[in-house]
Amino acid sequence: MKPFSHLLPQTLIDVARAQGFQPTGVFYPLNSYENRVYEIQLEGAAPIVAKFYRPGRWDAPAIAEEQRFTRAAAKARIPVIEPLTLQSPLEGYGSLGKTGEISYALFPKFRGRQHSDYSLEELELLGRSLGRLHKVGESFETRQRNTLSPQSFGVDNLPFLLGQPFLPADLRPNLEAALNRATSLVEAHFSAEVPALVVHGDCHHGNILWGRDGPVLLDFDDMMAAPAAQDLWMLFHGEEDEQRAQRQAFFQGYRLFRPFDESELYLAEPLRTLRLIHHAAWVGRRYQEEIFQRAFPYYRERRHWEEFLQTMKEQIALLQELDDIV
User: Fold this and answer.
1) For position 326, what pLDDT does the model report?
2) 202 belongs to the catalytic site
3) Which entry of 117, 156, 202, 231 is annotated as an active-site residue?
């Protein structure tokens, strides 16, 4: 059964009206594969954003924990988008509603821009935001969310990936060996005692909007317990000299609120490896849905699995080089 099969245009209108808003009937889908997100136009008022959570992924306590973390961040004056308090919430949850089997939250619409080529000044501002967020995350207790580890994001995905019907049989032995070797190397790096805290979890350029006052962090759907580096390693790019300047600007802002040992960024390649494995399994687990088939048509093709195998071999080489450095 399609997870969002009963999420019809009338559902959006009914949800908005049930929470005291007057929708015009005009709405726009926003980019999201995991959930369904819509900008809903209102009569005589600024639009709102409705986020409908994928059924079966997070239960109400887990979503409420995400919302509680977002509110804690806002209270610490970190620029985030807080969920709206609902007029008719799910019992016991002030900012969480439900339509059928689908939980939802409503947010004010924030108009900002996305881009990936950050100036050094922007990186310092972003460092301030994430430094404050991680300061909150150090003392925030999560009981409902994932803990990032080589087991949860790596090893646990291997049986599913290796059992994929799209994986050519002749590639399976080599891919199995590569995945086992990669996760083993990743695990060796995680054996060091790097403290875990509550982090955004998916802090890439697409989840950062820029307004007049700086960055605003969006979409805490992947909030988790993880090393601080999980929120940092995707932010720097380019040649080594460029990245060095980027890191210097970023940490100039970050360290105003929280210390960070840059040697922890050695986790970048282990974290990248886990993300590659987790993403491949995530696509496969959702591939019966048309939206995933349209977005990732190559997933069923041999060339995709050949490229995935080559990527794992490259990650193994990088992890081995890291062994020599560390």
Assistant:
1) 55
2) yes
3) 202
Q: Which residues contact 40 (CB under 8 A, 6 or more apart)?
A: 12, 16, 21, 23, 26, 27, 47, 48, 49, 50
Query: pLDDT at position 324, please?
Result: 62
The pLDDT, as a whole number, for residue 2 is 83
Same domain, 231 and 102: no
Mark whether 219 is an active-site residue: yes
User: Which CATH number goes with the domain that contains 76?
Assistant: 3.30.200.70
- ∠ CA 199-201-207, nearest 5°, is 110
Quote the pTM value.
0.94
Query: How many domains, in total, are found in the chain?
Result: 2
Angle made by CA atoms 320, 322, 324, in degrees to the nearest 5: 80
**Domain check: are 130 and 240 in the same one?**
yes
- DSSP string across 8-44: -HHHHHHHHHHTT--EEEEEEEES-SSSEEEEEEETT
Co-location of 177 and 79 in the same domain: no
Predicted pLDDT at 320: 93
- Residues in the chain with pLDDT values less than 70: 1, 191-192, 323-326
Residue 16: domain span? 9-108
Exposure letters 279-290 (e unless 16+ CB within 10 A, then b): ebbbbbebbeee
Query: What pLDDT, on a 0 to 100 scale, did the predictor assign at position 195?
Result: 86
Selected catalytic residue, list 14, 219, 222, 241: 219
Q: Looking at the structure, do residues 159 and 72 belong to the same domain, yes or no?
A: no
Domain presence at residue 2: no
The CATH number of residue 166's host domain is: 1.10.510.10
Please compute, for residue 103, the number of CA atoms within 13 A of its CA located in the half-sphere on the CB side: 21
